[in-house]
Batch of 2 targets.
Target 1
Amino acid sequence: MVFRKRILVQGTVQGVGARPFLYRAARANHLTGFVFNDVAGIIIEAQGEDFHLNSFVRLLHNPSVCPDWPPLMQIEKLQVQDRPPQEGEADFQILSSRADGSPICQVTPDTAVCRQCLAEMTNPTDFRYRYPFIACTHCGPRYTLTKSVPYDRPNTTMDRFLMCDRCHRQYTNPTDRRFHAQPVACPKCGPKIRLLDNRKKILETDSDEVIRQTAKILRGGGIVAIKGLGGFHLAADATQEQAVNLLRRRKRRQAKPFAMMARSLEIIDEIAILDPHSRQLLASPPSPIVLLPKKYPNRAAASVAQGTNTFGLMLPYTPLHHLLFAEPGMDLLVMTSANFSQEPLICDNQEALEQLANIADVFLMHDRDIFRQVDDSVIHSIDRRPAFLRRARGYVPTPIRRGRPVSKEIFAAGADLKNTFCFVKDDQYLLSEHIGDLAEGRTYRHYVWSVQHLRDLFEIRPRIIVCDLHPGYLSTQFAQLQEADQFFQVQHHWSHIASALAEYRAEPQEQVIGLAADGTGYGTDGAIWGCECLIASLLGFERFGHLAYYPLAGGDQAAQEAIRPLIGLLDEQDLSAIESDLVKIEPNRKKIETIRTQIDKTINTVSASSLGRLFDAAAALIGLGNKNTYEAQLAMALEAIADQQEKSAYSVQMEENWQGPVLWDPRSILRQLLDDPDRHTRPQASAARFHNTIAAGLLEFARRAREKTGLKKVALSGGVFCNRFLTNRLIEQLRQEGFEVLFKQQAPVNDGGIALGQAAIAAAKIEKGL
């Protein structure tokens, strides 16, 4: 007996070889019908004998049984409905895509070139031999090329390249790996590379010669701007100190570590400690930058990553990268985003030539346009699991699932630092890629454009707007300009904890103990919060405890100059006792007196519970520096020297406040650090004790909160938890005490996850009618 079913498939299913796979599977099961892409995902109608039809459906539910399952295809949702059989249907077909309705399926992230394409690219008999843009349905650019959905060639930046006969035959052959692979091209019909100098003069257009000349310039210590998947990189030989310092001077990047690209895992293994999971992550389709512990000695230039104990490393992920690293001497390159500090990544050829002319000696570029610039993702390991520091290329715009649909679409504006924004549609949190610091004009304009693009890409018309509580945030001001049925402002640290609740799909009313720790967050009392113990759900929060307030002078300067939190944290007696230390930290005595006056007279001074600034003060006292030339520089230096074997800690002094939250005294921590006899002789031990004390204090918050509430789940979020030493130690201790720990893996723990938390709070409030 013949049956027919209509199947809606949602997930990562467009542009990954799903339709040809389904076509082959349907024919193998002797089914008739059709499959096509639409804005909801993939629609299948399949007809045949009961056994064969059920076998086909079972395959979709259990992909592990199928050896030729497309590697990038991920089914997240299946809807199967019975349909009346149709007469006269002789075959199974792939139909043209349909664009009617509102898009709810995802656009596939950009992925690294696959092994099959690399094998073809290195095969002299293949017609794509040494072609820098080889791709198929298993790999290559997706999101960065996509103008609109459904994901078809006319809706991408490949629309200007007319396929030759050979490419077209593959593109239209359902049994071919390149069937409907939108970036498909070859040397005859596709994009091409060229080499230009910084005066816009074309130096070379022959593809092989461009690669050879680029390698020669890099070996000679030159700086090259290389156009990649999501924008330009600036490249230099990472083994040459002179070349790396030249790049630092030209880019005006004084100390922030550079990422590196290595020819192979073997090269990475020479300079960093590789565990099995990191190996797998580096070689995975997203191909992120992975932070790895340094090996000593190593051949990377010292100035690549000073003041840290890790390297940021990635493998070649485009065909062009692989061709370049196949050249002699190309083992290890600095590969850093081509932009100025806090500005958006440059992706346009003309803009690159104009903006980077004083940095790059030559430009290796191509004529395939990048519609959406996307930075490299950055991942490190927390609790032996991957955790995002920056979520971007390879992962965005993969949605984070809510588990149930929202009744109204939502826009969450995010934070001003490390900005991401988030839309909620159906049951999807659509968290944007890393945008950056909105205080920079170019970044803010990119933010506004990005919001509009993602909104149009998925045809989202949000009626609920949510943003941070801080009135001075540009993201808040942007959100206030949007038309909405309802408008929410959410406290920063509540958003941090809510982002963890969203990832773990907590029910709206479920409460957890939330430990939120960072540098700055606007509090409900107008103070600057930064070390908070919250009793929180997606519907509300109570401030159970916090680091006791201390005065912070100088506004934004307090995040840069360690002397400012240090003076705010110590009284006059303490400051007099360490006058020699103060002068080493800040030689300008007049500045010291000015800061004291500001604090005494409350001039340009705020009350703060910032844990981030406490880290700065401790690092300065240990002698690790006096300024953050980039965010968290001093805290990273403190983490880098901390002795992993040191288990002792200073005492934790907390006091119950019957009228308000439990207060943790930060001054006692610094006083004990000052009294530590190892501070100057063994700073590694003192740094570890400081970390251990912070872990002990946060653990004590959790203990006291459990005593009061009975709660056993603890959610951790905030930029301080990017610190691996602290976070790993705290998670271990929490578990030993019987707590269940929620730590994010799908969104960054820093402010890059704020928008997710804002969106989750708004969704929960709407669901509960609040």
Target 2
Amino acid sequence: MLSLRRIFLVSALVASANAASAQRIHQIESVLPRVAQRGTSLDVVIRGVQLVEPREIIFYRPGIRCTAIGPVTEILSDKGLPVKFGLAHGGRIDEEIRCRFEIALDAPLGEHPFHLCRATSITMIGSIHVTPFPVVDEMERGLNSNDTREKAIDIVPNVTVRGGIKQQAVPDVDLYRVAVKAGQRIAVEVDVVRITDTRIGASEVDMAVRILDESGVELGAADDSALHTQDPILAVKIPRDGFVFIEVKQSTYTPITAPAFSFGGIQYSLHVGTNRRPLAAYPPGGPIGSHFVVKFLGDPLGEHATAVTMAAEPGTFESFADAPSALPLRASPYPNVLEAVPTPAQLQARAKLPPSARATRVEQLPTALNGIIAEPGELDSFRLSVKKGSRWRVRAFASALGSPLDPVVRLRPIEADGSLGPVELEGDDSTPQERDIFGHYPRSGGGFKDVLDPSLIWAPKADGDYVLEITDTAGGGSPVSVYRVEIEPASDGLACVLFWQGTQAHQGSNQGLSIRVEGMQGNTYAGEIEIVAHGLPEGVKFVCPRIPKGTPLPIFEWPMQLVTTAAAPLGSALISLEARAVDGSQTVRSEFQSKAPFIYQVGGDSFHLIQLQQVAFAVNDPAPFSIEVPPPTTALVRNGELAVPVKIRRRNGFTEPITLDFLWLPTGVGKEAALTIPDGQSEAVLKMSAASNAKLGDWALSVKASAVLDPKRAGVTITSDFVTLTVAESFVELAAQPDSLRRGERKRYVWTVKSKNPFDGSATAKLLGLPKGVTQIGTPPTLTKETAEIAFEIEATDEALLGPIAGVSCEVVLQAGGQEIHQRSGSATLRIDPKL
């Protein structure tokens, strides 16, 4: 009998090892250059490992296409010797490939993630950024060659500089000189965290920027920013004609130790322009598809107003003007309510009114409330009417939109005399899950600005009017501290989360993956769930068992397969997954989320990831082997074990070892460690074991087979077709009353038998856990489905350990489905007494 504890422990260790391995090898470790202008073409160098046999670049956004892919070459030193770089996360850089990217004139600004598709696999994500400005390189002539105003590099405004902070004995400071006119605006943005492709990073990527006049007087300085978190934004109004100097350096000098920085140091993009640089928009959102005037705030030359068209779909979208980065805005299917701002004369009269009478009136729900906490300590309030028993989702958007406001929201009933009652519900920060953000999270809690905004499910305790109050948690406020509070009916929602950064299947094979299913905030749906795929290419079928009714959420792993025919065309597609309620009478919203983390380090907010609503999928060359798993001929019973045979077929002389493991197992089912099958062996057996609380029912079972083709190519993984694994109740339940045995004594040890899952034929039983010096003797007892009691002959020697021994159990062995089945049952206490 396999040790159940050992099986579960090995299973956990293998899963942890696989997760760690997946984090180490990213294939694409460096992309240079990191930024390019619209309407240009450029050569891009991709560095990493396992880049051989490239076929295409798969982009997630329109506007960039790869027109040429060169051969994979080794990275060579000045002396022509191969150069290899080890990276902090366990990855490495061994080789490079040169591609030609063509960027359209209307390419969307910002980050463009992509994959390199190879003959047998697809890489993890790399990215390149698009700027509206012409791009120049820093061209630092030597270490510290542009560290002073006298040595500053001349640039012309409305330009993006590709620069780098170098590793050296003293801090590297980069200065740029710009000719300016009095009254002119100079706007500066430094992107470091936002453009990094370094997987591990902290304070070394924290940059600061200053603007100095000709005498070195500081006109403005910035380190972090509410809009870009750890990347600074700065704009100033120029006081006089002449020159200004833009200084870029590390916020706190940190030696650069990661080898990935060897390619020109820490890469940054410095955007310098005369463009407007607003820091907030008001209102920060509106009804979907609407077109109205929005005021842009925070520019040093004053606010300006322009008409903006809201996105056609609900959610957060980017609004670009002439700046190189966007302001996030919200589109919602609800009308806007703007805070009522009283005139100075009205303020005096309002001061005499009760707080409920000062609140901005909300005529209907659902709605979106908008306002500005313009002064420190300011509190805004809105009056609304609700019914007891209703459920509302109250979500604030401030920090998530780049506002410096850290909002707190309170809901208070209005008493009969117009005064405000006690706080019924209050929210400050949120968890990522409460913001419907699932998957990868920053370790230190930074990175996701959304978590500073509260999100609440509110069930009013009474009919009547309430006041919603909003203010800054720390009593702050500023002219750009905008907010938006969306109040909508709480509804059922499910999110499908895929942790893989792109996936592939081989012609004629299956690709199995595990997905996560989460309940979105306010979800109450607990019925049967069906997962469907959208965007599949020709010749590919999606197979995913339904999630049974009543399965608790979140489901951290659920099996799915992409089944590819032998005739499926080679190529790629962007696919998404949707969770649907099988019960058609209930409406359930669904989202698909996949995230590609770049910087994730303990401490600080050095965190960057790409959030995707699709995942790249590629059909690749056939795998050099296949596997087959026949349907189990018997059930896996609780406290029992089951052997699963696997047949292996190799093709085209493939001789590399093949590793076999289960794709997924239901709750309470464990396994032995993965098996490695050498060449010449065409059959193997994987073993699983069920705990006493294993989830009963029929489950999808699949085996995955992995092999390494060679060190230069990524491994190949395929999965067998799904077969049905039945987890059933144990065959019998055995029990014994506490008993005793003296040294030198032989006696009958009686156990009662209760049939729980009738079986054919007979079974034998033996005792487990007997203490030293006590043995089972004679012929093992047999039992059938009618047996009510069995007895063992046991004997104790003079060396038997004295005292009570707990945990004595029975192992029942029977034949079922053509294989020997072992089941463990019972837990009794046997006391060993001295010899008379």
